[in-house]
Amino acid sequence: xxxxxxxxxxxxxxxxxxxxxxxxxxxxxxxxxxxxxxxxxxxxxxxxxxxxxxxxxxxxxxxxxxxxxxxxxxxxxxxxxxxxxxxxxxxxxxxxxxxxxxxxxxxxxxxxxxxxxxxxxxxxxxxxxxxxxxxxxxxxxxxxxxxxxxxxxxxxxxxxxxxxxxxxxxxxxxxxxxxxxxxxxxxxxxxxxxxxxxxxxxxxxxxxxxxxxxxxxxxxxxxxxxxxxxxxxxxxxxxxxxxxxxxxxxxxxxxxxxxxxxxxxxxxxxxxxxxxxxxxxxxxxxxxxxx
Amino acid sequence: xxxxxxxxxxxxxxxxxxxxxxxxxxxxxxxxxxxxxxxxxxxxxxxxxxxxxxxxxxxxxxxxxxxxxxxxxxxxxxxxxxxxxxxxxxxxxxxxxxxxxxxxxxxxxxxxxxxxxxxxxxxxxxxxxxxxxxxxxxxxxxxxxxxxxxxxxxxxxxxxxxxxxxxxxxxxxxxxxxxxxxxxxxxxxxxxxxxxxxxxxxxxxxxxxxxxxxxxxxxxxxxxxxxxxxxxxxxxxxxxxxxxxxxxxxxx
Lengths: 291, 252
Prior knowledge:
The complex is a heterodimer. In chain A, 77% of the residues lie in helices and 0% in strands. By secondary structure, chain A is mainly α. In chain A, helix 7 (184-192) packs across helix 8 (197-227). Chain B is of the alpha/beta class. In chain B, the strands form two sheets. A six-stranded mixed sheet of chain B has the order 6-7-8-3-9-10, with helices on both faces. In chain B, strand 7, helix 6 (175-190) and strand 8 form a beta-alpha-beta unit. The longest helix of chain B is centred in the last third of the chain and has 16 residues, at 175-190. The interface between A and B is medium-sized, with 24 and 33 residues.
């Protein structure tokens, strides 16, 4: 027999846990933490040992993990990386807007909009099928070759346009998946209240759809941040190009590793942001009656 | 005075006839219960009245005289019709990403262009009237089924409809939650609201309905005041249906 929980009927009641069971749970928790830390330390120690004890390690350390080379390359790399940041900041905003329009265009069912639907579908089919690197090469070298007056030949601009074209197709599909995942009864409920089709989409369907696809959406943006390096193919000195130049003159590959760290550093916040957004959303929906 | 008139409505889905030459007239302040087996067309009929589902043939009017709107007209302004008609579904269909208050004020603000302040005040007044005042800022997933369904009713009422349609609004509820929703409908009847409700609650239909229509094979087979329809049904099919739903031990 356990002693009954003393719960004053007024105050919010704390869940009653048998003291014996509670201490058993705590003990198990401590043991789990210990096992987790121990296994992590052991695995990583073995990995480090394996790598550093390999015959070629001193050479690799010298060429890839050279502190002096990293310090020397840093100023150029970081200023070149600003170009990557500019490219994806501009591209992300454009993609967010354009992809939504394409997704909505594909969802138009009225007969008048058939051309819009066909265009949007062909666009998505095409750009999802063509490798991004090809789009970049075709636009970056093809458009300037046309020698159109009044049209920029800037490789950065055309590289960004190529990224936007390519990623808009992916992101449009992400949006669309979210839109079709919202049950038709939600739209019916909105329409039955007198909301127009556009209002039902704007206030009822889209907010739920976007929330639902936030993780894959941010996932695509993380991929985009990395792919800004592809613009280097057209010549502009972004971070990969800068690392290449530096490596070619010093015969040291450390700049590549530094560039890699820069990409990781910039994508990590976005990954964490995704987690945080989801947690916040969940919390907001779980906590209620706060007013 | 007829608020709702349906004449010769036909509706089929993929070759299945759901409504066949159905006619029904509902007067102002009338409460009409639609009863009938599952698949007899009750839900479809309600959706046709609200223009959510177009009929294949026949006419539906809402209102009287100059004020009359034809749901089935080729150029019908369905948004205008839906402002006039409130519908509540079996599955509540609240918007899960909005608080109770936002659910209720969305249409008044965006459709009727009421200010946020006016819409909020009206919504809180309605919530208080139906015992939901303290739920205003909760999200739907924090509410019981009965509370969600009452919010759905309040949401429809906030548009100040002339006609309320209830589509088996208690069918998805646990038995102990049915009463609170039926209470709301009872109160609406007291205020003179015109109501058409599809229901399986025969006891409730008998209690609040002015008239009961038995749907069979896509049409209204028999329509009468509840005492008459439940007491002495004229058609063999009506009698069989009532016998089936009035299983031994269930009063009605």
